[in-house]
Amino acid sequence: MGDIIDGKAFAARLRGEVADGVAAFRAAAGRAPGLAVVLVGEDPASAVYVRSKHKACVAAGMESFEHRLPADTPEAELLALIEQLNADPAVDGILVQLPLPKHIDEMKVIETIDPDKDVDGFTIGSAGRLATGQEGFVACTPLGCLMLLKDRLGDLSGKSAVIIGRSNIVGKPMALLLLRESCTVTIAHSRTQDLPAVVRGADIVVAAVGRPEMVRGDWLKPGATVIDVGINRVPAGDDKTKLVGDVDFAEAMDVASAVTPVPGGVGPMTIACLLHNTLEAAKRREKIG
Ligand code: NDP
C-alpha cells in the first residue's frame, strides 16, 4: 500500500510560510503585497476560484484587488484595465481568471500583463524564461506539483518522469521544471501510442489529462510516485456528484509508493503557489531579500 501525499497539509504549511514572509515584507516596505484578480463574466466555477483566491490572499495578510467585469465587456476595455494594473504601484501580481468570453482574444490579454507581475506564469515571456533557465514566474499548478515531488523524493536527478498532457498551463511547464531538475522527461498526449507501456517506465508520473480515472494501477511501475492533477466531476449516485482525478486512486495506491488524492492533493497547492509567487513578485519589485 502506497502513501497518500497530503497536498492540503503541505499547502497549509506553505501558506503559513508566505504569511510570515508577508509580515516581514510589510515591515520592510511599509505596505502589503497586492494581487489583482480579474474576472470577466459569471462562469460559476471561475467565480468560486476567484473567491478562494481572494480569501487566501486576505488570510496571508496580502491586499486583494478584485475586478469583476460583465461578460460583454469589450476586449479594449479589459486591455485598458490590465495596462492600468501594470502601472499601479500597489499591485505586485495580476491574474486574469480563464476562460475568457469567446469574443476576447485570451493570448492578447495575457500578453498585455507585465512579465514582472505575471504571477500565473502564463505569458510568453515567463514560458520563455522557464524554457531558457532564467528567473521568472512558473505556473502555479506545475510549481505546486514540483514542490510535492521534491518534498517526497528529495533529489529528482536521473529519475524518469512521464507527464501525460501537453497544455501550456500544466503539461509543458511541468516537463520543463522536471528537466531543470535533471529528470529524463517524456511528454505523452492523445496521440501517444501504447500509453500504458510508456507510463510503466516512469519513476514519476504526472497525470494532467482531464479524463476520470484513466490511469490504471497496472500502468504503473511498482514504487512509482504519482501526481494526479486532474479534476473531474462524475456521477456518484442519487443525483449526487463527486470529484475524481485522472488516476484510479485505489488501484494506484496498491502499486505506487505514493499518490496524491483528489481532492486534497494538487488542488490546494495551486492557490498556495499563487500566494508564494505574489510575495516573490513584491519582493523583486521592492528589491527585498
Ligand atoms: P487540457 O485539456 O488543456 O489538456 C489535456 C491534455 O491531455 C492534452 O495535452 C491532451 O492531448 C491530453 N489527452 C487528452 N486525452 C488523452 C488521452 N486519452 N491520452 C493521453 N493524453 C490525452 O487540460 P489542462 O492541462 O488544462 O488540465 C488537465 C487536467 O488538470 C484537467 O482535469 C483540469 O481540470 C486539471 N487542472 C487542475 C488544476 C489544479 O489546480 N489541480 C489546475 C489546472 C488544471 P492533446 O494535446 O493531444 O489533445
What distinguishing features does this structure have?
six-stranded parallel β-sheet; 10 helices; 2 domains; 43% helix; globular; single chain; alpha/beta; Rossmann fold; three-stranded parallel β-sheet; binds NADPH dihydro-nicotinamide-adenine-dinucleotide phosphate; 289 residues; 11 strands
Please give a structural write-up.
With 289 residues, the protein is α/β, with parallel strands linked by helices. It folds into two domains: 30-117, Leucine Dehydrogenase, chain A, domain 1 (Rossmann fold, 3-Layer(aba) Sandwich); 140-268, Rossmann fold (3-Layer(aba) Sandwich), CATH 3.40.50.720. Helix content is 43%, strand content 17%. Strands 1-11-8-7-5-6 form a six-stranded parallel sheet, sandwiched between helices. The chain has a three-stranded parallel sheet with strand order 3-2-4, with helices on both faces. A two-stranded antiparallel ribbon has the order 9-10. β2, α2 (44-59) and β3 (63-69) form a beta-alpha-beta unit. α1 (7-29) packs parallel to α10 and α6 (140-153) crosses α10. It is globular. Residues 141, 164-167, 169-171, 188-192, 195, 208-211, 229-232, 266-267, 270 line the site of NADPH dihydro-nicotinamide-adenine-dinucleotide phosphate.
What is this structure, in a nutshell?
With 289 residues, this protein is α/β, with parallel strands linked by helices. It has ten helices and eleven strands. Helix 6 packs across helix 10 (266-286).
**Approximately how much beta-strand content do the residues carry?**
15-25%
Main sheet strand line-up: 1-11-8-7-5-6
The number of distinct helices, counting runs of at least 4 residues, comes to: 10
CATH fourth-tier homologous superfamily of the largest domain: NAD(P)-binding Rossmann-like Domain
Which fold name corresponds to the CATH topology of the largest domain? Answer: Rossmann fold
Helix content: 40-55%
Taking pLDDT < 50 over at least 5 consecutive residues as the criterion, the unreliable ranges are: none
Order of helices and strands: EHEHEHEHHHEHEHEEEEHEH
CATH architecture of the largest domain: 3-Layer(aba) Sandwich
User: Could you tell me the mean pLDDT?
Assistant: 97
End-to-end Cα distance? 43 Å
Gross morphology is globular
CATH secondary-structure class of the largest domain: Alpha Beta
Name the bound molecules.
Answer: NADPH dihydro-nicotinamide-adenine-dinucleotide phosphate
